[in-house]
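Re: your question about EGF-like domain-containing protein

S., sorry for the slow reply, the queue was backed up all week. Below is exactly what I fed in.
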Amino acid sequence: MCSNKADCLNTMGSYRCHCKDGFSGDGFYCSDSDECADNVNLCESGNCLNVPGGYRCECDMGFIPTPDGKACEDIDECTFADICVNGRCQNIPGLFRCQCSIGYELDRSGGNCTDINECADPTTCISGLCVNTPGSYICNCPQDFELNPTRVGCVGETPLWARSLTHTLSVWVLVMGDD
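Result:
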């Protein structure tokens, strides 16, 4: 009588026992074959687990088992909602990378891009009022000032009171120096 892990094949006047896939032996006695030990290349990007009559893959993070459980395939994280907000998602095997839009930087999680507060830099909007906006900033210049050509600060004519003060100081230095 054949093992319960074997198929019975009817032959002319007799029968033959043949072990099922994943088992080895003479058909009357069949033991589990360890496919994982026999082929170390199984389950790339995961671990091979021997099970009676076969094997299955436990996949590394960023991979999922194929429908038959015999291999691991990459998860395309870029298809998920809210990945790389304010940037572009690039799928790479086992993970993804965010490339942030101008005016944004990668957050600590590495999964999203957050606004850079350009106004935190004291060299931004010199002599003006800096207002942070999503991905940029606005430089508001005081009255009688305008944005300089490089657009990083405000320039204007010297106010009348400042010119008077400068003239008074110059005259005072000249007078003091004549002693």
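The longest helix spans residues 160-177. The chain has two helices and 16 strands.

Happy to talk it through on Thursday.
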